[in-house]
Amino acid sequence: MSEPDRPLFLVVTIRPKLDRMAEAEAQLQSMRRNTLTEPGCVFMHLVQPQDDPDSWVMLEMFRSRAAWDEHMRQPYNVEGNIILEDLLRQPSDLRLMNAK
What we know:
alpha+beta, globular, Alpha-Beta Plaits, 3 helices
C-alpha cells in the first residue's frame, strides 16, 4: 500500500485552560461530531488520561493522509481551531502515525 493510501493515526494532546474546560470540551465535542460524519474518518475519541486529569487526548484514525488533509480544510474545523486557541493553555501536541 502506498504511503498516501495508508491509514493515518493521530494522537493529539490537548491542554485546556483550567477555568475554561467546559467551553473547550463543548467545542471539541462539536468538532468531533462533525468529523465523525466525514467519509474519511474511521474513529475519533476524546479521552482523559487517568494520570493527568487537566489534559485530554484525542485519538483519531483517518482512511488516509489525504482524508485527514481534507478534514483539516473543513470550515467547522478551521473555525473551531481558531476558537480553541483562546481556550487552551498551549497549542495542542499533534502526533501523526502509520500502522506497522
